[in-house]
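Section handout 9: paired folding examples.
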Amino acid sequence: MTTRSSAASPSGSYHRLAAIYVPVTAAAQPVAAWLPAILARDYGVPLTLVGTLYLAGQLLNCALDPVVGALSDRTQSRFGRRRPWVAGGGALFVAGSAMLFFPPASLGLAWLVAALAAYYIGLALLSTPLLAWSGEIATGYHDRTRAASIFTLWQSIALVGALALAALAQHLRPGDGQLQLTLFGSLVLAAAIPALWLTLSNRDDSAPPLLAVPLSPLAAARAVFGNPLLLRVLASDAAVRAGQGIRTTLLLFYVTFYLGRPEWGAGLFLFQYAFGMLSAPIWQRIGVALGKRRAAILAEVFQALINLALVLTTSDRFWLVLALAFAQGLTQGSGNIMLRSMVADVADKHRAETGEERTGLYYSVFALADKIGGALAAGIALPLIAWFGFDPKAVSNTPQALNGLVLVFAIGPALAHAISAAVISGFALDAAQHHAIRRHLDTAADPALQPAE
């Protein structure tokens, strides 16, 4: 088995590995935020049908995550363990994105079903093996923080690019959905081919050889639910995503109805994410200096305080809104960086204790917790603001409804980030322990290793 110390792991490998996140992130925001409205308005697809297809695609994606993670753990090929999955998923993702962003004028149901299926299946085949691959080539405790921060940096850059294109399309031809799709699709496809080549041509692939054993879903479930460290990371990440999702779900309502500044709907997103590009290198340094657990707690406490301060904002204090968006940008993804890095550390500990390789499986359930947290956001936030009497179709809302909107928008994420900090505070795997685990793994004989289910 190839071994490598933290100091010897080149950051260039992480940049190459993370390259595919540029088209993936550049596609994700438009597919989620703009495509449903464009399909309904410009192509006459009923919103109910769009919602049903989206739900089916996301459920398929969630169902595939643990399967792909388990199978990629036990893949043996001359191209490596994870690379074949990334290649296949990447090809499907590119095909699905091309079909979604460049649909025919007479868009039919078969085309839309095939496009969404290719898109969501491609993401499932690509994402979990890619995360597991990063955890395998970045073997050091702090090295994994650097790798996760590089992934987050490229995601932020891609997100800003997509938002900038949305603003440009709105400026050039307001309401022109086809122009928006063309700009989004051009960005995604222009980035996808070179990004996929960079990721797949990464020569680092330090996965050890495996023994073939039968798949056992029960053993896989025990490896997940019997691991308290992993469960802490999953719960903490679900809380983080719920907080982020509540803010994202309600931001346009907050800007348009509470602040009375609808022209800032896309602008505030872009303002925050532009500064978010600075957050990854900042929090990488904090993570290395403090360790992942303390850095994650600090990040989530900061996020909780920033969101809580939103209760003080009013239409006359727009300067405070911008100041908090700036602070939000500088802490954007900070907790996610640490939690994503912790998954590989937990997988190392499990492998040292049991001889089983579970990195792909653990990242698959991490992705599932991520999606569950995002789903909880809309399921909690929208009914709550409706209970307060808020109606986005109304010409004007009552003061009680608007106050309820800002309370959910501020306190919901603040509470979620506080819960995340409390949960991860009990994570008992530090740098010294992980260094000892890596020494044991790097000197252990390969035949003891078993693949994940």
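Moving on to protein 2 of 2.
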Amino acid sequence: MSMNKNSIFGWASFLLFLVGAALVLLGVLKYKDYAIGFSVTGIGFFFISWVFNALKGRV
């Protein structure tokens, strides 16, 4: 299976989404004192993931 540009953008967006979800969950469930920082950073990862997904097929 060959990795082209679209599959690389797809995997990158999936992995960024997983990291963002992990950060949000860590902030909400484990580190309640720092929940705002973790959540804002996780939402930033969600936005980067969305941009990578939007770039599939355009670059």
